[in-house]
Design brief:
The complex is a heterodimer. Chain A is mostly beta strands. Chain A is built from no helices and 11 strands. In chain A, the strands form 2 sheets. In chain A, strands 2, 4, 5, 6, 9, 10 and 11 form a 7-stranded mixed sheet that branches. In chain A, strands 1-3-8-7 form a 4-stranded antiparallel sheet, with no helix packed on it. The relative contact order of chain A is 0.33. By secondary structure, chain B is mainly β. Chain B is built from no helices and 10 strands. The chains are: A mainly beta, B mainly beta. Chains A and B meet through strand 5, strand 9 and strand 10 of A and strand 3, strand 4 and strand 9 of B.
């Protein structure tokens, strides 16, 4: 149980185009999903917190107009990288929170999406 | 920030030996800690967690130790296997009343036959 999928797993796009990445919780409902970015040989950096039915909360330094997040249902959140540039090339990972009534709920991670902007 | 690293420290062990991976966390108010394993090109995989009211927790072949006095977390892997080769991250829930995780810089574990 608690499986999170991402689509696509790998995408190559031209500079200036927009790319949409989907994050789905397959067998549970997630009111909260998180989006991370990971550069090579570095740790995961939280970009934003996505809450179903409300606006996402972005971390400091993350442009909300560039990284559009939509959490339209309890099982789907999307991240759209708008007007992508080579410096946006990275590994994007989402996680979905399994709500268990605990003070801190467990996050389950997707397999990641490798974005390459030419 | 504390979760950005310029390089990954590496721990090399021989198959069958025990591994100990260490992590210094940043926030003394953190009350929940998790260890994740990340294989190349994949997302993090949950290994084991521990809450701040405990100092030790054991799983299958893994043990997590928490020392709140010095803000130190360790992951012990018994009888390390080639399949354990990966990057290991500790994460803390360091922000009050949020579920945000702060990730450590990570340690690469290499297991040699």
């Amino acid at each position: 149980g608690a499986v999170v999928s991402q689509h696509p797993s790998r995408v190559i796009c031209k500079s200036g185009t927009s790319v949409k990445i989907e994050c789905r919780s397959l067998d549970f409902q997630a009111t909260t999903m998180f989006w991370y970015r990971q550069f090579p040989k570095q740790s995961l950096m939280l970009m934003a917190t996505s809450n179903e039915g409300s606006k996402a909360t972005y971390e400091q330094g993350v442009e909300k107009d560039k990284f559009l997040i939509n959490h339209a249902s309890l099982t789907l959140s999307t991240l759209t990288v708008t007007s992508a540039h080579p410096e946006d090339s990275s590994f994007y990972i989402c996680s979905a929170e399994l709500a268990g009534g605990l003070p801190t709920d467990t996050q389950y991670f997707g397999p990641g999406t490798r974005l390459t902007v030419l | 920030g504390e979760n950005v690293g310029l390089h990954l420290p590496t721990l090399s062990v021989q198959e069958g030996d025990n591994s100990i991976i260490n992590c210094a966390y940043s926030n003394s108010a953190s009350d929940y800690f998790i260890w994740y394993k990340q294989e190349s090109g994949k997302g993090p995989q949950f290994i084991i967690d521990i809450r701040s009211n405990m100092d030790k927790r054991q799983g299958q072949r893994v043990t997590v130790l928490l020392n709140k006095t010095v803000k130190h977390l360790s992951l012990q892997i018994a009888a390390t296997q080639p399949g354990d080769s990966a990057v290991y991250f500790c994460a803390e829930n360091g922000l009050y009343n949020t579920d945000k995780l702060i990730f450590g810089t990570g340690t690469r574990l290499q297991v040699f036959p």
